[in-house]
Amino acid sequence: MSTELCGVPLGGPVLNGSGTFDAIAARRAFGDALLERFPFDAFVSKTITLEPRQGNPPPRLWETPAGLVNSIGLPNKGLEGFLSADLPQLAELPVPLVVSVMGYTPQELGTLVERVAARDEVAMVELNVSCPNVESGLVMGADPAETARALEAVRPLTHKPLIVKLTPNATEPAAVAAAAEGAGADAVSLLNTLKGMALDPATRLPWLGGGAGGLSGPAVRAVALEQVASVSSRVGIPVVGMGGVASGADAADFLAAGAHVVAVGTESFRDPAAGARIRAALAAREDMPAPDG
Amino acid sequence: MSLAEARTLAPPERRTAQVVGCEDVGAYRLLSAEDLTGPTDPRPGQFYMLAAAERWGGGASERPYLPRAFSFARAEPLRQGTRLAFLLEEVGPGTGRLAELRPGDGLSLVGPLGLGFRPAREGRRPLLAGGGIGTAPLVCLCDELDDATVLLGFRSAAHAAVAALFGAQPDLATDDGSIGRDGLVTELLAEELQRDRHAEVFACGPPPMLEAVRALCAEREVPAQLAMEAGMACGFGACFGCVVPTRAGFVRLCLDGPVLDAATLETALAPGGGHQG
Hints:
Number of domains of chain A: 1
Strand order of the largest sheet of chain B: 4-3-7-1-2-6-5
Radius of gyration of chain A: 18 Å
Radius of gyration of chain B: 18 Å
Order of helices and strands of chain B: EEEEEEHEEHEEEHEHEEEHE
Helix content of chain B: 10-25%
CATH class of the domain at 15-113 in chain B: Mainly Beta
Helix content of chain A: 25-40%
Distance between the termini of chain B: 31 Å
Oligomer: heterodimer
CATH architecture of the domain at 15-113 in chain B: Beta Barrel
CATH superfamily of the domain at 15-113 in chain B: Translation factors
Number of helices of chain A: 10
Number of strands of chain A: 14
Strand content of chain A: 15-25%
Number of helices of chain B: 5
Order of helices and strands of chain A: EEEHHEEEHEHEHEHEEEHEHEHH
Largest interface: A-B, 43 and 45 residues
Largest sheet of chain B: 7 strands, antiparallel
CATH topology of chain A: TIM Barrel
């Protein structure tokens, strides 16, 4: 099952979605058994920002039919805190490390990419573009031109692979993917959560502390599959497919739809070993399309 | 187990235990399961993420989807494995499905998770205060202690049947006065602390009760450990959903709790501690 992503060798085709598995926290709960049976073939960090963020006020979660709406708000230690406190611990993981970054301006994104990619422990950088550009007011990843501008700002800063995490909350995700490819992205990953909301049944006021949030889990799988298929048919760079992947059969669907590798997100909340289970189920399948990479 | 932390590590995967009992205890249910491969020494106050192995999902409102967090009430080592007991109250689709389980059914679990109760500080007598379903982690804590005073509050005598699970003889209070004191468990606690304040309080219960315990203990300079609750998706720090505000900012209750030192809290009335049952 070994494969590669953007030239980085991987032991298998299963990653985690950014923000759905905290390997440092999981090691506190599970000890070094986590490293001996690490569930993913590459580890994608939670998104880091330039400055520390404490995240949104609770409540942060709402269970939906076959899914979850979350409003977490990207809590993180900021760039300096990440580099000094988190990166040394993530470097102990037995798989390549992908660091997810988000900037509120192309310059901020540039600082993050330059500082993170310069570290030997980091194999790839993922750009979380699901945030507004505070200068233009546009969500970077919702607009092909904004996405291209962000890529053009950061592409000259590193030779390491850059993955663009696409948001489904765009008019045409495939056009955004094509713009990212044209501006030098090495891969795209999709999908991020779909905008969602829940009301408190007692008051009919927004339940989540952040007001609204993002939907994930099996509830979004059909949407994700279509977007992976349409993006894959539009770009030549590899696609990391995710959105409600909960079984080997789901993962095989995403690969058949054009994904080069898959990522597991919300299913890991239900079973910390979900990634390993899905990888094993995928390896046991005989109807797998031959890898094209 | 780390000496610094009241944490027994969990295997890094979901496993299936076999249900061996699901009986009424007054107004609650006690779900027992044999966990063949997990650790035999979870710390009182630690919790497990539970789900039915079959038909989890597709129930009322097409839920549940996520597992539910439960402190264990008792963990008894078997020749092989551990017999775990959890106290349930049906308050939503998840707890409702768990309450349907029968001997022979599978119980999916991940755990033990979180930080349990620490030993009482030197020279202080343990004083256990529980409210409603929150009495569960105090059962196993009481088993470990020789000389604990146990104070429990319930809605009614039917709920107070849980008191029979305790080895010690608890003092009771009920909202309707149907057994014990007609009033709140915090009234019993105030009297105990009035009598002798060289105690350390171990409390678990609904947020208003925990806040009353926190305020009472702060006023009398009595240390307290509070086992708290928040809706959580994963139980091992992945989802960042279960944060509660402390004096040092948000902490993930699943990782740095569920047992928190009361002195670290401005309030135990955490906004959004609610869950969906």
